[in-house]
Design goal:
The complex is a heterodimer of chains A (140) and B (181).
Chain A: H1 19-36, H2 42-70, H3 81-86, H4 91-116, H5 121-139
Chain B: H1 5-13, H2 18-41, H3 44-60, H4 71-93, H5 101-111, H6 119-129, H7 133-143, H8 149-156, H9 160-178
The chains are: A mainly alpha (140), B mainly alpha (181).
Chain lengths: 140, 181
């Protein structure tokens, strides 16, 4: 009965002459070919176009920003009197106009007060005739 | 000149010296990896293709290399997986064939000009071919490559106890096959 220890440990697998001398070169060649023929990812294929689009966006943004800085978009225009006068919805005029009406109404109310306290013509006549006569008597 | 693994790892860390480091790995381990594959696939042409594929995979996945592990266990692992995938594919091709893939390999041992062993050596190799693939891997790595169980464990991601049991069973089966007829 043979055991494994009775069999000499040998390497009986042979290779072609000089095989290992060129194996590292074959492997290097295979790696090189693989790198050259490596399928490109979608990003790599579209990379130039993506960069171009990004450049255009940056350029357009820069131009827009530059124009905004150089050109005053909403200049402050001082309105002249005519412009104010012709502006119906001018807030200050409306305010002034409202105040004017209020003042007028106040005056009207005063007149009404005086009107309501008016002395009758007869009383005035009596009053005047009494004092006027005295005045006439004293000085005329 | 054989470069120390630590020096290779240092060069691998630097992208500028990475290719140089990889060339050193190929020079240092290609012979060992070739025979590891050859013992599994028997045929020289298949082994030649697989050893190149293994190093190509190692190169393309070099970023995944964990610098705290040994280079040779990493390369061995890649080569072993490449080899197992190849054997699976071959076995599927032989599904409807009159002979099994293992029998075709045994025929190659008998007839190949690249095998120069005597009758006892041929019988030993044919006996090894009768083992299940994983057991064959364990036997070859322990018996021929002289790897430690801890190293095989790192390569095959199997427990040391399981590997010891596997090797023990493999030796028993091989001795049984050798002593048949």
């Amino acid at each position: 009965m043979k055991s494994l220890n009775d069999i000499p440990k040998q390497n009986n697998f042979k290779t072609p002459e000089g095989y290992f001398d060129s194996l590292d070169k074959k492997i290097a060649e295979k790696i090189k070919n693989n790198e050259e023929n490596k399928p490109k990812s979608a990003f790599e294929i579209f990379k130039p176009y993506i960069y171009m689009a990004a450049s255009l966006i940056i350029l357009a943004s820069a131009v827009k920003f530059g124009l905004n800085v150089l050109v005053d978009k909403d200049p402050v225009v001082k309105p002249d009197i005519e412009t104010i006068a012709s502006t119906e919805s001018n807030y200050f005029l409306d305010e002034f106009y409202d105040d004017d009406i209020a003042f007028y109404e106040y005056l009207s109310e005063e007149e009404e007060v005086y009107a309501s306290n008016d002395i009758s013509d007869e009383e005035i006549e009596n009053y005047l005739s009494q004092y006027y006569i005295e005045y006439e008597l004293q000085y005329e | 000149m054989i470069i120390d693994d630590n020096a290779i790892i240092e060069k691998l860390r630097n992208p500028k010296t990475r290719n140089e480091a990889f060339d050193s790995i190929v020079k240092k381990y290609s012979n060992q990896i070739y025979y590891h594959i050859r013992r599994m696939v028997i045929d020289h042409d298949d082994a030649n293709d697989l050893v190149q594929d293994s190093f190509l995979k190692a190169y393309t996945n070099i970023d995944k290399f964990r610098f705290d592990s040994a280079i040779y266990t990493w390369i061995y692992r890649i080569a072993t997986n490449t080899c197992l995938n190849f054997l699976e594919k071959k076995k599927r091709q032989f599904t409807f064939s009159a002979i099994s893939y293992e029998d075709s390999l045994a025929d190659k041992i008998e007839s190949s000009s690249y095998f120069d062993g005597d009758e006892l050596q041929k019988k030993l190799q044919k006996s090894i071919l009768k083992l299940p693939e994983k057991q064959r891997l364990v036997f070859n790595m322990k018996y021929y490559d002289d790897l430690k169980y801890e190293e095989i464990s790192e390569i095959l991601k199997t427990s040391v106890g399981g590997l010891k049991a596997s090797y023990h069973h493999a030796v028993n089966k091989i001795e049984k096959f050798i002593n048949e007829d």
